[in-house]
């Protein structure tokens, strides 16, 4: 986060780095100010602002109902939307029976496409005369812990951040060695100056403006890394917030290793695309400056 955007109060539940505004005296994070403008109308407009939970899901019939019911209990949520991304099981019917609005891709298009579909449907349901809903993205396998993403809403709703990312506790049975996480963390730091703790966390709340600024989203498993880089480069503010969540971690068997290999590939594709874009923008800026001086 940009140190120029720090304001005086602190919050022990919002995690940042020392370089990003952490108070060394208290060990707590000084709260920044979001780039997204606050809703017109002051506190009354903020009170009217609601949250849409968007759940991209594929083959989650065993957990999706519990996830939906739990998400509906999050304060300020008035819409839970499941995007069934080409499931081959009963995900869509289980989600609908639990109270979600369901839209379905006829075939698997990937998480980024599901997120974009979900955001588009939410936009169509936003009421005129009210602030646009915040978007809270939740994984379909969180089950009863989905309600614990509620702390992500507060910093975005109060104008502290444009993007709030969940910090998960250690997950039992996780088989990864941190290679992909480390690669994503280093890339985000190199391209933005911010060092996230959990760069691949998919549970995140953001404003409509921030979401639109991050589109088109990076494909595949690179969506979170790409989104973070794109938003920070444009001056949006991100924070990490601890959330007590439990999901299904990837194992250390062959399937789990293949999953992490795909993650690494997609993260590197997203990172390299943004490196090239940054280099192109830098060259264009130099040429533009030279032309104006001439």
From TrEMBL:
Keyword Transferase: yes
EC id: 2.4.1.266
Catalytic activity: an NDP-alpha-D-glucose + (2R)-3-phosphoglycerate = (2R)-2-O-(alpha-D-glucopyranosyl)-3-phospho-glycerate + a ribonucleoside 5'-diphosphate + H(+); (2R)-3-phosphoglycerate + UDP-alpha-D-glucose = (2R)-2-O-(alpha-D-glucopyranosyl)-3-phospho-glycerate + UDP + H(+)
Bias (Basic and acidic residues) ranges: 1-12
InterPro entries tied to this protein: Glyco_trans_2-like, Glycosyltransferase_2, Nucleotide-diphossugar_trans
Key words, A-Z: Glycosyltransferase, Magnesium, Transferase
Region described as Disordered: 1-29
Gene3D superfamilies reported for this sequence: Spore Coat Polysaccharide Biosynthesis Protein SpsA, Chain A
Name of the top EC class for this enzyme: transferase
GO molecular function, one term: glycosyltransferase activity
Entry keyword annotation includes Ribosomal protein: no
Necessary cofactors: Mg(2+); Mn(2+)
Domain Glycosyltransferase 2-like as annotated: residue spans: 53-142
Recorded family membership: Belongs to the glycosyltransferase 2 family.
Protein's recorded name: Glucosyl-3-phosphoglycerate synthase
The organism of origin for this protein: Xylanimonas allomyrinae
